[in-house]
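FAQ: What does the model actually see?

It sees only this:
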Amino acid sequence: MAPSLTTRLVTQHLLLRPPRTGDVTEIRRLLRANHEHLKPWNPSPPPGEDPTSITEVSNTVLRQRRDWKRGRGYVFMLARREQPGTLIGKVALSGVMRGAMYGAYLGYWVAADVQGHGIATEGLRAVLDFAFGAAGLHRIQAAIMPRNPRSLGVIEKLGFRREGYAERYLQIAGKWEDHIVFARTREEHVPAESPPRKDSPG
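And it is asked to produce this:
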């Protein structure tokens, strides 16, 4: 059984929850406000496609909710606890594999105006507790470009192991980029000192 779409993770400063159809306008605002901030780290969209259009954002949210229900991926939108209606980032567990591996790929970003305040680290700790707990996963992998020091700092702070160097691993912003591959398994995971709790739906 996949974890419920009513899942809420609450940390000292953050609320993390799956995207809702009612979030489309807010997600669009967040993406557009951070277009230049995210552009160097994101794959280029197909010609003529605007990933921040109402249609594309709506389709993305619907796909993410379908994946959640099927146990294929878990996307969390981030907000401050005192401002739950204002989104400030995203953490995704994608490409969930069962069978022999029980693993997923980790991706994350936070808005430009909240960087440097520990938001990504705090949010990722909660999602890792979820991944190795409610989601029942065994291995989480992350791939980060060597020229992304902020992201490297976050993943290393969380205790991920460097497993290798993948040349021309992903096409980012129209260019094949090298990535450093990190991983963590359930045996290595130390839950947060104050484990995130699930709020009641609403």
